[in-house]
Design brief:
Rossmann fold; 7-stranded parallel beta sheet; 6-stranded parallel beta sheet; 13 strands; globular
């Protein structure tokens, strides 16, 4: 018989401790976190005593019938057999990380994620019309040839269709993902980024200097090359270019390091080592300008931190998070339409204005109230 416990299925991701804390604060539910990793090999999850680790998905599949509600923290390829093993009486909830859709050419044309220069230096193979046609005709073929095996893409499509809920941090991103997958699922709001998990909200000191933060990682969707070119032609003397590159594509990271040195010489400062959050924040909080030129949802924690610490933040208007911030009155700028105006940093009134709205949107208290209401409705 199913219990009232909620099952969470995840991998060793840096966001999972936040989920453990937030769901664990709701005293009217019990949560089990199943991690598809060896516990001895966990690098990001710190609360090891609160998770159960499994080597393979088959161990988890054998325990599924104990739960009525199942949260999948991302749709990792290893989770697909688990999703497809659930029964119709179970509620499956997809906590979409974004990569499951944006990194899949079946759903998103990757050229739409890259700015002009980045696109010129990027090589990727788009899904051909023939392959798309073959994917669409395969189910018809299976009617005639019943032993035709399912492709990984077909299984992923089936897993996405199986999901009852799509979880995103905000409605603008929910709408985008729904459009890409051509499905309208029930919506449940949740964010891994309570403000207090990102910054010290009691630290109101402003320490910005002549420093520009560019991107959050060594991934192409940061469009570093296009940002570098614009900064270079702004003729910004004595401004350090801080560039986090601690993870991502190694070949791309080396390219960005070379280009950064070419443009900015000794003023280019890449961060190549993974840093604890507190140390990382001490670095980025000195940036008077922060540029996140992503055309998709990305770097939310970095954007929130930069705004809190008083940076003038530039985003692409194609990023759904830009729409959320602007619609709520946050002072944030369109990178494509604005010059950087480095000599006009945000004043104290503008910084205070942004902080008040950030608290209203992302404070732990508000997010927990929202989550409590969502889960209460879910279990009724």
């Amino acid at each position: 018989m199913m219990t009232s416990k909620i099952l969470h299925i995840a991998k060793d991701e840096k966001f999972i401790d936040s989920a453990i804390n937030q769901f664990g604060s709701l005293n009217f539910i019990d949560n089990d976190f199943f991690i598809l990793n060896e516990c001895s090999e966990l690098n990001y999850i710190k609360q090891k005593e609160k998770v159960n680790c499994f080597k393979t998905s088959s161990y988890i599949i054998n325990k599924l019938n104990q739960y009525r509600i199942i949260f999948f923290h991302s749709l990792d390829a290893d989770f697909i057999p688990i999703v497809l093993s659930t029964n119709k009486n179970q509620t499956c909830i997809w906590m979409c990380f974004g990569y499951e859709v944006y990194n899949d050419s079946f759903y998103v044309d990757k050229k739409n994620l890259y700015a002009e220069l980045t696109l010129k230096h990027t090589t990727f193979t788009p899904v051909s019309i023939q392959k798309k046609l073959k994917n669409y005709l395969r189910p018809i073929k299976r009617i005639i040839y019943r032993d035709t095996p399912f492709t990984p893409q077909e299984l992923k499509i089936k897993a996405i269709r199986r999901m009852d809920y799509l979880v995103s941090s905000y409605k603008e991103e929910y709408s985008k993902i729904s459009g890409y997958i051509h499905q309208k699922k029930k919506q449940l709001d949740f964010t891994y980024y309570p403000l207090e998990y990102i910054v010290n909200v009691n630290d109101l000191e402003i320490k910005t200097t002549n420093q520009i933060l560019v991107g959050n990682s060594g991934t192409l969707t940061n469009n570093h090359l296009d940002v570098f070119k614009k900064i270079y032609y702004e003729n910004l003397n004595n401004y350090t270019i801080l560039c986090p590159l601690s993870y991502g594509d190694k070949v791309y990271i080396e390219k960005i390091k070379i280009k950064g040195k070419f443009y900015f010489k000794d003023y280019f400062s890449p961060i190549t080592n993974f840093l604890p959050l507190e140390d990382y924040n001490q670095l980025i909080r000195t940036s008077s300008i922060a540029i996140f030129y992503n055309f998709r949802q990305q770097a939310i924690g970095n954007i929130i931190a930069s705004l809190w610490y008083g940076a003038k933040v530039f985003l692409s208007k194609k990023n759904s998070f830009f729409s959320l911030l602007k619609s709520n009155g946050i002072i944030v700028f369109d990178f494509d339409k604005s010059n950087l105006n480095v000599y006009e940093p945000l004043n104290i009134n503008q910084i205070t204005h942004n902080r008040l709205i950030l608290k209203n949107l992302f404070s732990e208290k508000r997010l927990l109230e929202k989550l409590s209401s969502e889960i209460d409705n879910l279990i009724k």
